[in-house]
C-alpha cells in the first residue's frame, strides 16, 4: 500500500537540519574547539584532584561540606552513601560522574539564571520563552546527543553539552516563577522608597525568590544525573559508562550496582540542595 503524501513530495526538513548543522559546525568550529579544550581540561583536572587523595579523605571532606550546608543527618547519610560506593569499587566512576554533573549544572545555572530573571521581569520575554522551554522538555533526551557530536566530538564535553541543554529548562522556569511570585505589595513598597530597578531586583525580588530558584537548581541536578547513562553512549564514562558496559555485556548485577550508585548520588545531592534552599528561605 502506498503511504506517500498525495499532493506534493516530502518536505525536506531533514536536509535543512543537516545543512544548518553543517553550517554551524563549519562556522563555529574554532569556538567549539576552544570550549571543548577548556571544559575538557577543567573536568580532567577536577577528576585528577579528587582521585589523588585517598577516598576516605575525600569522603570526609564531602561529609564536612554536607554538615555545614545541610546539617548532621545529611552529613552522616553522605558519608555512609559514599563509603558504600567505595566498597562497591565504583569510586573512580562516582568521581567522574559527580564532576560531570557539577560542571553541567554550573553551566546550566549560569545560562538559566539570566534568562529566568529576564522572563520574570518582562512579560513579553516570558511569553516568548515558554514555547521554547516546552519544546526543550518535550524533545526526547537521545536527540540532544545528535548536535553534540559534530560540535564537540565524542567524549565528556559532548556529554556535558547534551546534559546542559536537557537539564536547563527547570532552572529557567522556576527562576521566572520565583520572581513573578514576589508579592506586589513588597515591590510597590520598594518603589515608594525610591529603589532603582537594580536595587529592587537584588534586595527584594531575588532574595525572596531564592527557595524557588534552589528548587529549580535541584531539578536541574536530578535531570543531569538522569542523563548520565544516555550520555555514556557518546563516551561520558563514569557510572553511566558502567551501566552501558553492563548492558552490552549482559551483566545485570553490575548494571544494577551502577544504577543504585547513581540513585545514592542523586539522594545526596538532592538532600543537600533542598536543605540549602530551606535555609536561604527561612
Layout of secondary structure:
Elements lengths: L12 H15 L1 H23 L3 H16 L1 H16 L3 H31 L1 H16 L6 H8 L3 H25 L3 H9 L4 H30 L1 H4 L6 H12 L2 H30 L1
Low-confidence stretches: none
Q: What fraction of residues sit in β-strands? A: under 5%
The overall average pLDDT, rounded, is 84
The chain-level structural class is mainly alpha
Can you summarize the main beta sheet?
none
Helix content: over 70%
CA-based gyration radius: 22 Å
Strands, count: 0
- Straight-line N-to-C gap: 66 Å
Q: Helix count?
A: 13
Order of helices and strands: HHHHHHHHHHHHH
Estimate the global geometry from the Cα principal axes: globular
Write a concise keyword list for the protein shown above.
282 residues, 83% helix, 0% strand
Would you mind describing this structure in some detail?
With 282 residues, the chain is mainly alpha-helical. Helix content is 83%, strand content 0%. It contains 13 helices and no strands. The chain has helices at residues 13-27, 29-51, 55-70, 72-87, 91-121, 123-138, 145-152, 156-180, 184-192, 197-226, 228-231, 238-249, 252-281. The longest helix is centred in the middle third of the chain and has 31 residues, at 91-121. The chain starts with 12 loop residues before the first helix and ends with a helix. The model has no long low-confidence stretch (mean pLDDT 84).
Amino acid at each position: 500500500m502506498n503511504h506517500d503524501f498525495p499532493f506534493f513530495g516530502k518536505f525536506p526538513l531533514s536536509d535543512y537540519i543537516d545543512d544548518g548543522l553543517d553550517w554551524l559546525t563549519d562556522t563555529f568550529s574554532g569556538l567549539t574547539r576552544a570550549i571543548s579544550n577548556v571544559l575538557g581540561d577543567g573536568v580532567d583536572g577536577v577528576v585528577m584532584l579528587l582521585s589523588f587523595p585517598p577516598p576516605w579523605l575525600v569522603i570526609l571532606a564531602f561529609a564536612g561540606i554536607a554538615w555545614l550546608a545541610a546539617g548532621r543527618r545529611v552529613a552522616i547519610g553522605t558519608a555512609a552513601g559514599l563509603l558504600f560506593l567505595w566498597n562497591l569499587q565504583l569510586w573512580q566512576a562516582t568521581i567522574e560522574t559527580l564532576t560531570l554533573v557539577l560542571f553541567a549544572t554550573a553551566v546550566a545555572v549560569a545560562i538559566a539564571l539570566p534568562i529566568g530573571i529576564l522572563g520574570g521581569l518582562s512579560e513579553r520575554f516570558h511569553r516568548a520563552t515558554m514555547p521554547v522551554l516546552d519544546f526543550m522538555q518535550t524533545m526526547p533526551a537521545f536527540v540532544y546527543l545528535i548536535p553534540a557530536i559534530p560540535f564537540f566530538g565524542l567524549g565528556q564535553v559532548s556529554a556535558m553539552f547534551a546534559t546542559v541543554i536537557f537539564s536547563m529548562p527547570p532552572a529557567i522556569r522556576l527562576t521566572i516563577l520565583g520572581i513573578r511570585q514576589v508579592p506586589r505589595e513588597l515591590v510597590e513598597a520598594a518603589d515608594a522608597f525610591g529603589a532603582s530597578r537594580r536595587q529592587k531586583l537584588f534586595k527584594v525580588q531575588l532574595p525572596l525568590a531564592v527557595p524557588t530558584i534552589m528548587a529549580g537548581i535541584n531539578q536541574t541536578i536530578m535531570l543531569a544525573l538522569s542523563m548520565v547513562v544516555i550520555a555514556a553512549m557518546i563516551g561520558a564514562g563514569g557510572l553511566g559508562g558502567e551501566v552501558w558496559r553492563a548492558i552490552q555485556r549482559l551483566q545485570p548485577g553490575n548494571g544494577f550496582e551502577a544504577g543504585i550508585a547513581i540513585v545514592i548520588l542523586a539522594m545526596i545531592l538532592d538532600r543537600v540542595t533542598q536543605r540549602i534552599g530551606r535555609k536561604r528561605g527561612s
